[in-house]
Structures are given as C-alpha cells and as structure tokens.
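Q: My labmate handed me this sequence with no annotations at all. I'd like to see what the chain might look like in three dimensions before we decide whether it's worth expressing. Could you predict it?
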Amino acid sequence: RHRDDWGDGGGDGGGWDEGDGGEGGGDDDGWGNDGGGDDGGWGDADGMDDGGADIMDTYVAKIQIFYSADDIKKEDPTEALKLYRQCVSAYDEWKEKTESGEVDEELDDDTITLALKALVAQITILLDKGEEQEALEVYDRVFTFANNDSISESDFRKEVMSVLNAAVELKTEKKSTATKAIFDTTLKKLAELNNQALWHETSVKLCFLHISSGETKSAEAILKTVHEKCQIHGRDDTSKPDQLCEIYAIMALIRIDSQREDDSFLHYVYDRTSILRPNVMDPKNDSVLKECWGKKCGNEGQWPKAYDHFFQAFKHYQTIGQSTNAKRCLQYAVMTNMLCDTTENPFDQQEARVYKTDAQINAINTLRDAYDKCDVERFAKSVKSLRPDWYMKKHLNAVMRDFQERAICDTITPYQRVRIEYLSSNLGISNESVTDILIQLILDGKINGRLNEVEGILDLRKANKLGSSEKMRYDALTGWADTIEQLRKTMPQPESRRGPPSRVRPDEFTDIPGDFSSLGPSAHRMTLFD
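A: Here is what I predict for the chain of 530 residues:
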C-alpha cells in the first residue's frame, strides 16, 4: 500500500484519514483519527479505553482471594484470617474510589456477597480464638450490608444466622459472655433496622438456647417480649398466625418439660391456637400444640378427639426426628384409643407399626392386645409392667375401669345367675368394686338384670321391667345426670382428681385472660346451685 494512494496525511499513519488525520505520526496503523500512540486504534485520543476494566478486574481478583482463604481456614486459621482481611480491604478500597468518583463501574452482586462472607468468616475465627471485642467490631460492619441492593434478604439472613450458630457452638469456657454479646448486638441492630422477621427468629433462637441450658425463667421472659410484638392492644394479632403458633408451641414445650400442664394452661393454649390458620404448617410447632390439644380433650373425656390429636402429634414428632416425644404421644394415643370404644387399632397404621416391638412401646401394645381379648390375667401383668408418666397415671384408672366393665360383660354372657364373689375372684378386685361396676352397667343399660346385694347374686333371668311412672322418673333422672356430666366436663377438675398436687404457683396465670385464677379461690368452689 502506498501512502499517497489514500490521502495526504503525513507520517506513517497510512490510515483511512483525510487531510491531517495521520498527523500524529508514530507507528499506529490507522482506521480513523485516533491520534498517535501504540494502542492499535479503536480508542479515544488519550489511549485509556481499557484502563477502567483493568482496575475492576484487579478488585474482583483481590476479593476472590476469599476462595483461597476458605480452602485453608481449618488447617491454618491464622493465615486464612489474613486473606479474609485482604478480601474485605479490597472491597473497602473499591467502595471508597466509587464514592470519590475515581471509579464509576459497579462490582457484580456475587463479588459483593463474597465481601460479606469474608466478614462473617473473620468473626467465626476471632470468636474461636477468644478475641471477642474484635469479633464484635467486625460484626458491626456486617449490618452495613443490610440495605445493600446487591445483597438479597435471604443471603443477609443466612450470614447473620452463621454468626449466631458460631456463637452457640463455642466451647463452654468461651461461650458465656461472647454468646450473650453476639445475641444482644444482633437484636439491637435488627431493631434499629426494623427487620422484624429476623428479629423474631433471633429471639426464638435465643429462647431455645436458654431452654437447653435449663434457664426457663430467662426463656419465658424473652418469650413474653416476643409475644408482645405479635399483639395489638394486648390481643393476639391474628394476621401473624405463624409467629403466634411458634410462640405458643415454645410456651407449651417449657410446660411439658417441667410437667406444669394444668387444666387452665391447656385450655388457654387450645383457645388461643385453635383459631389460628398458619400459612405454613411447621411440624415442630404442630407436634407440641397437638399434644396439648390431646391432653385437654382427654381431661374432658372427649376420647375420640384426644386420640386424633395425639396420633397427629406422634406423626409430627416422627417427621422431625424426635423419637422420644413420638413414643410418648404414641402411648397416649393407644391409651385414649382404648377408651374410644372402637375396633380401630393404632398399630394397624404404618407409622405406628414400626414401633410395635420397641421396648418402651411393647408394654402398652401388650396391654392393648389383652384389652381387646378381655384377657384379665395378661391385662393385670401388662399394667404392672407399664412405666406411666403423670398424664398416663391420671387416666390409667379410667382404662382399668373400662376394661373391668368389658370383662364383666364378657364373663356373664353364658350365665343366667352369677355370684358377685365369682366375678370378684376372676377380676382380682373387691366385691364392693364389682357391685359398683354392676350397678353402673345396669343403669347404663349395658346389662339387663337385677342385683341382689343381700345374697350377692346378679340375676339375669328376668328383664328388669319398669312401670310407666318408674320409667318416666328414671328417664328424668338420667337426663339430669347427663346434663350434670356435661357441665362437669366444661369445668376445671378438682386438684384431688388430677393426681399429685400441681407445682403451678397460684398467681402464675393471673395475666392470662379467661384464667380461673383471676377470679380468686372461690372460683374452684362452685356448686350446682351457683
């Protein structure tokens, strides 16, 4: 190519320029009036078109040192801490130059997230080293990312939870002050940011930490504060069903662990939670709540409902892997199922069948089998082999009474006359107990016969026919008795019928609307004429 073929520009420009387009001279090969230099064209006159990209590549490379630090943090935490600091320093330098206008390009979201992760990694190492104060200073910086558009809400939550988990997992000698300081800082910062969801989650986590440490009073104090955040003028805000279910579940869990589930508390939890409709069913909450519902219904004699609630609680506990609680609720379910007067056997369902041979469940399973077959001797042995908790003890007499009624009905079937003494020896109970059961069976219409208490004979040869006036009187008394029984079920049970005295303080529920303790001692001495 000859220079004079393409124009009159001087020098070695040789490009597509006109006039003095190649005046810059030098070694450039043209393609426009790009001026001189060795940049090869396509750029601005100052030759700095790629400079910004080079700077950004440098910052990205420095921040990505995070990956190198992550690889060695277990083997050499000290060296990893240095690399994490370099990563954060590169981010700080970029941010400073961006604010001053020296750099006008943005880092991508993933790179900024790495800077946040590097801060969290520093905190974990510092806490493990026992450098609590420096860890808290670094932790303050984590919350500067809360409103960063490049950090998603889920990523920020994840990193905060990582710090809390690291604080919880500290060894005992480092845990006391550092863990408290981390949680206090978190709650304070989240309150300032008005991040209610994460504040609630952090508070619940702290509550469980106190429960696991046996500090139930501290847990209840935190729970009270959390509950107040979910109330409007002292009443539950039903627009927050998920949070409220979690609060009541933790409240019930504390009571279950300390065996302080009196009737008023069970009613309180049932009344507050049965109206809630959570958006997401959490088995951790539902398992505890369903157990409370089952106990409440069982105390009122609503055995079919109690069975359904206990079996649901069992399945939820099984889902979350809490086998001890699952076995406890399965025992409750089997016991209440026997009182339902139904042929349904809970062990016919697949979830319960796997526990059938378990040592803890075998006793109640044997009891159930003896109950179905009216095997008196085997039933008595099974009762002795049981290791019932306080709730099973409370209702075990009802199970035994129901079995004795079934056994008597089964024993007298082929006879026309039966001696009370014979039934007493068969069942292994006193004559007075047999007589009491027979009277109840006759009144309930389950046995059609006459009882001669003088001779101690049950006569089944003649139907127990009543005159019209006697029948009317009997029907009226029956209706009256049924009404009184329904009234009894809706009232709190006397202490003497609940087994051992409760450890609940008299003033424990004075803050709960609808609790009977707020009415004073006279509320527990109500009579029919009141």
